[in-house]
TrEMBL record:
Organism (species): Phyllobacterium brassicacearum
Protein name listed in UniProt: Polyketide cyclase
Stated family: Belongs to the AHA1 family.
InterPro entries assigned: ASHA1/2-like_C, START-like_dom_sf
One Pfam family, short name: AHSA1
Domain Activator of Hsp90 ATPase homologue 1/2-like C-terminal residue range list: 23-154
């Protein structure tokens, strides 16, 4: 995890908050979260990169993605619904993993703010409320791995 990363757990370890400072303006970072072509380049941990992303970017619109394990071939489908969209500043959406029977699992809310700090962006990512602190911890590891990939992608721009 980079020095710019900070992770805290609240509510008995069931709320995940991650703060990252990205070396790019807020509009670029926001675009990386909302453009499916850009999301394919960073979404998912290093060992489970995204192979599919679709997004209907409007309040009430749905998003869907699949993470693929290169090692095992396992596919992890997940998706949700956009709740709030303020270009370059704020994004909120629901998040749920697909269960084996095709139904959605536990739904959490992801709320992300993008704050300009000179020519950089302070991203505050919050996902809540998880069913267990272990599930929260695992998501923190996965998201931080993905955000490391995002940081590398933004450095190329």
């Amino acid at each position: 995890m980079s020095e710019a990363a900070h992770v805290t757990n609240e509510t008995a370890g069931r709320v995940l908050t991650i703060k990252r400072l990205f070396n790019a303006p807020p509009a670029f970072v926001f675009d990386a979260f909302t453009d499916p072509k850009r999301m394919l380049q960073w979404l998912g941990p290093r060992d489970y990169p995204a192979s599919y992303v679709e997004a209907d970017l409007r309040v009430g619109g749905k998003w869907r993605a699949c993470l693929d394990s290169a090692a095992t071939g396992e596919k992890l489908w997940h998706g949700g619904v956009y709740q709030k969209i303020v270009p370059g500043r704020h994004l909120a959406f629901t998040f749920a993993w697909d269960q084996e029977n095709g139904t959605a699992g536990l739904e959490t809310l992801v709320d992300i703010t993008f704050e300009r700090q000179h020519d950089k962006t302070l991203m505050t990512f919050r996902q809540s409320i998880f069913d267990t602190s272990e599930n929260c911890r695992c998501h923190g590891q996965g998201w931080n791995s993905a955000f490391d990939r995002l940081e590398e992608l933004l450095a190329q721009d």
